[in-house]
Write a structure and sequence with these properties.
about 190 residues; alpha+beta; 2 domains; four-stranded antiparallel sheet; two-stranded antiparallel sheet; 4 helices; binds zinc ion
Amino acid sequence: MAEFNPYAAPEAEVIQGRATGIDEGRGVWVDGTILVMAKAAHLPHRCIKCDAPATSWVARRFMWHPIGYYLFAMLGLIPYLIIALIVRDTMKLAIPLCESHRKARAKAFGINWIVGLVGLAICFAPAIGPDLGFLIAVGVSMIFGSLIFAAIKASILVPKRIDKTHAWFKQAGPDFLASLPSLPAPAVEL
Ligand SMILES: [Zn+2]
């Protein structure tokens, strides 16, 4: 991916799409399938998944560091966490959703909770009969499955990179991305 020049002039004048507020959508671009935005920018009031008018916002705090720092996990969890806290970049973002995507998300999380709780209940099955011990593996799998689902789905967007001024996100919907202006070409040094 081309390096983005954070010192380039603001592109607010060329923002396309259906932005209504003065700041809405300013500093937000598309680069292929990646949503690129200035950290200070606000997303337009349209669903991040389908581009319909947004009715709710999900507040998220994203953290990112270069992938190589995961190697420090080999030294142990505590050294890795200390290093990750030092080198990470973070970003707070209010993610817009339409009513149908908000409902679908609430329904998915409701089902996910039930799967996790049923998994927990199944773990106690051996208390009913000693030959039901094999069900513990089923219950634990359901609990871990629901935790992984929640970890992946909770954030809606997945950070590809975050630096001091900008953030790059995966998983925005194609219709939403299509409404955004293209990322300005980086300045060419002569
Ligand atoms: Zn939607």
